[in-house]
């Protein structure tokens, strides 16, 4: 079924308040708050050479594709294309946090040292903490994590067990002063992280919270187009600490993960069963011993992984030491049980590239791609091809699809190479012949598959994808 | 015309995948990524007492309404309700930046001192700059502004006059180590700011850019529900520096602004004429001298204002000293002309409250309100009223309207006071009698006007508002 037939399509084109503003940076029209970007005016500084310190493929590709600018060792600024990916990841992470009822807050990046002295971690944290003195010579730090700060918020405002369970999360910049920052945004010093903190009345409730986050993380990574393996990070006895690291599979990963092959099937089922999944064997190489491995070798998969998430139950550790107490149902005060839950949002940009690229460049999963469609106008000086290209991008934008229009005065080969390098999932190629035949080429970046189609069929295809 | 008639409304209710999860923090259903919040499970720590340092009304109300948590002097964390307002402002600021073709980037908060030594501002900036040494004893700082950093990005990546004009902007946390932080988020140390930077080939082009930002700022503040007066900040000769501060009118403002009363009419016209508007008399009190004032007294208005924006043209100051050069159309390298443009995003939350409150609390302009509608269920234990309340909030959410449902076990007076304090624009009051008569009360927070209406009429009203 063609949802948007020719008649309707033409009506939409007529209805649009299309604007061509040569003096501005963008040829755009606005519909549903979406803008069409014209590549000749877009700030996309592609690089042929990559910095000497870019050792891994994601780091090189992020520079070559104009996603980031290096400000200092381990400190990056995000350029428009990279920021679109970062924000897509952020949006998906937030949606999945909101879905399970967590509350979105934003804590300051700068924290007073007092809070960390109270928790006992100020000295323990070592040189990775960026320590700061303000103009009055008082001690502050750039938050590497926020257990202390969130405990301070909750102890100030929470009074009763009736306000529990409570789960506060944020997506905020953090700083860890790595001795040797490397791998670009994968191990940077300033990085964007989602960190969440839970407060529960007792262990049973805390365990339910932990399980709900565990399932939510798997959903989050799946939506990002990734396969994530939750690896037990601490083998404490039941009733003690619970902790899992989430490793996404990438051939170039730093870690090696040994895991039960039944895992992938279970993780992709509609309802993730925590008990079933977390009981499966999954460990990092240093914990794997063939002699004691509980599952037969033919059931074992060995793959490379990148850590992108970490969840951790730590009971009353911070609520006790920082004096967080609320009144229980029996009228007596008690220390809530806590856990913390992190996802490396900026790290994920690099990790996704490690998991999804080829020799031509990045292959973005659709959910995080900076644009879904790139229209490549091969003629560019011809009114007829531009008119076709414009018609198409108006129709796609009206469907809420992000489009980048390559109107640069470049050879076809350069345009194809750019589209491949920056990893846009679909390329629509409009050439001289298109204006005669009415056909354009639709190329799928991931498979390389090319189909000749009419504009109507392309619109039909993307309409189907949406529904 | 009732866009959503009874039949359709009931269909929507049936279609919804409504979920009641007592174990989660939110009774919600999802449609268009919108969630309905249940106040009994929302993290809204209302305060009866306000901190001793809260001298001005916005600071007191932000604490009382549970918008922020004070982490340290001049350093605040944003709680859920406050963060919703902050993000609404951020969204509007971004939309207006995107509309004029500016490119969205995100620079790091931490900058190397080297860049500021290069520009000559490292020593000049004084104690307001938060200076930091990393573990290798290298000098860094928490960016108070970003002229140096953006110039570094542009000199690295821009080669030709063909890439101009270019305008890069970001919304990012900044730090200024104020000697006496006060007025809550209005003069905090860590704050969220939109800062933009323009690069042009020559003065004529830079002037056009400046004018376009000037007009864009007026549109932005108007959309935020504010009246902003652009006050000339520097009276340099034509061809020299151009600079305007944007003062929003608030009875409790710090500044006193003297301005031509024709201003408000011109600023609210559909097409803002820069030349006409910027030629009108508007100065701060220290520059106003009745003896030399060029306009007659009966044409002069005197009002209190709060500075929320500042735009500044500074020519080749940074491009020269930092060696930013691009090739001109004549093949010769030249230094681009620059300007910078700031809006105090977190400051605006306080400023809007100063401009819009009464003795009962905050009166949010609709565009920035954390929720547009608050449903007040006076019975709460009664299935019939809850069913009416739920029906209504499902319908409103399906229209993309944010709703907070007060299901707390509190007296009506407490519920009314909360709704007034936190400033939600519309309150819908569902009482015992509503289930018999089919009528609920719709109260407008700003005017206090109350109307009895059916649910259908409320839905009709909000549908009309949208179109």
Automatic annotation (TrEMBL), chains A, B:
One Pfam family, short name: tRNA-synt_2b
GO molecular function, one term: ATP binding
Subcellular location, record wording: Cytoplasm
A GO CC annotation given for this chain: cytosol
Domain Aminoacyl-transfer RNA synthetases class-II family profile: 74-365
Keywords in alphabetical order: Aminoacyl-tRNA synthetase, ATP-binding, Cytoplasm, Ligase, Nucleotide-binding, Protein biosynthesis
UniProt xrefs under InterPro entries: aa-tRNA-synt_IIb, aa-tRNA-synth_II, aa-tRNA-synth_II/BPL/LPL, Anticodon-bd, Anticodon-bd_dom_sf, Pro-tRNA-ligase_IIa, Pro-tRNA-synth_IIa_bac-type, Pro-tRNA_synthetase
Main localisation: cytoplasm
EC number from the UniProt entry: 6.1.1.15
Enzyme class: ligase
Entry similarity comment: Belongs to the class-II aminoacyl-tRNA synthetase family. ProS type 2 subfamily.
Function: Catalyzes the attachment of proline to tRNA(Pro) in a two-step reaction: proline is first activated by ATP to form Pro-AMP and then transferred to the acceptor end of tRNA(Pro).
Quaternary state and interactors: Homodimer.
Name the UniProt record assigns to this protein: Proline--tRNA ligase
Organism of provenance: Candidatus Bodocaedibacter vickermanii
Gene this chain is encoded by: proS
């Amino acid at each position: 079924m063609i949802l948007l037939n020719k008649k309707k399509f033409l009506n939409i084109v007529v209805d649009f308040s299309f604007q061509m503003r040569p003096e501005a940076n963008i040829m755009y029209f606005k519909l549903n708050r979406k803008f069409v970007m014209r590549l000749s005016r877009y700030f996309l500084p592609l690089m042929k050479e990559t910095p000497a310190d870019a050792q891994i493929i994601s780091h090189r590709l992020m520079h070559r594709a104009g996603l980031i600018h290096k400000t200092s060792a381990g400190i990056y600024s995000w350029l428009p294309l990279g920021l679109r990916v970062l924000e897509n990841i952020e949006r998906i992470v937030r949606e999945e946090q909101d879905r399970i009822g967590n509350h979105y807050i934003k804590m300051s990046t700068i924290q007073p040292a007092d809070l960390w002295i109270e928790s006992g971690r100020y000295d323990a944290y070592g040189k990775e903490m960026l320590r700061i003195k303000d103009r009055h010579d008082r001690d502050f730090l750039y938050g590497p994590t926020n257990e202390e700060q969130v405990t301070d918020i909750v102890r100030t405002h929470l009074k009763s067990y009736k306000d529990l369970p409570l789960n506060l999360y944020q997506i905020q910049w953090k700083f860890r002063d790595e001795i040797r920052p490397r791998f670009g945004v994968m191990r940077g010093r300033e990085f964007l992280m989602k960190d969440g903190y839970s407060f529960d009345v007792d262990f049973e409730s805390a365990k339910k919270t932990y399980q709900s986050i565990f399932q939510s993380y798997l959903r989050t990574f799946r939506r990002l187009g990734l396969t994530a393996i939750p690896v037990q990070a601490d083998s404490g006895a039941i009733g003690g600490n619970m902790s899992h690291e989430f490793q996404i599979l990438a051939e170039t990963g730093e870690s090696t993960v040994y895991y039960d092959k039944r895992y992938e099937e279970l993780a992709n089922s509609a309802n993730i069963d925590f008990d079933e999944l977390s009981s499966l064997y999954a460990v990092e190489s240093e914990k794997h011993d063939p002699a004691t491995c509980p599952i037969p070798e033919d059931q074992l998969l060995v793959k490379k992984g990148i850590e992108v998430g970490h969840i951790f139950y730590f009971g009353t550790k911070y609520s006790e030491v920082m004096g967080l107490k609320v009144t229980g149902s029996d009228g007596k005060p008690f220390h809530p049980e806590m856990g913390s839950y992190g996802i490396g949002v900026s790290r994920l940009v690099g990790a996704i590239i490690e998991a999804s690229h080829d020799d031509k460049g990045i292959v973005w999963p659709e959910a995080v791609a900076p644009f879904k469609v790139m229209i490549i106008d091969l003629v560019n000086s011809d009114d007829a091809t531009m008119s076709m290209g414009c018609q198409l991008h108006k129709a796609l934008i009206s469907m809420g699809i992000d489009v980048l229009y390559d109107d640069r005065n470049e050879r076809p080969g350069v345009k194809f190479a750019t589209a491949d390098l920056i990893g846009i999932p679909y390329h629509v190629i409009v050439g001289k012949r298109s204006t005669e035949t009415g056909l354009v080429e639709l190329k799928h970046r991931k498979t390389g598959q090319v189909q000749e189609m009419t504009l109507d069929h392309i619109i039909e295809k993307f309409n189907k994808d949406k529904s």
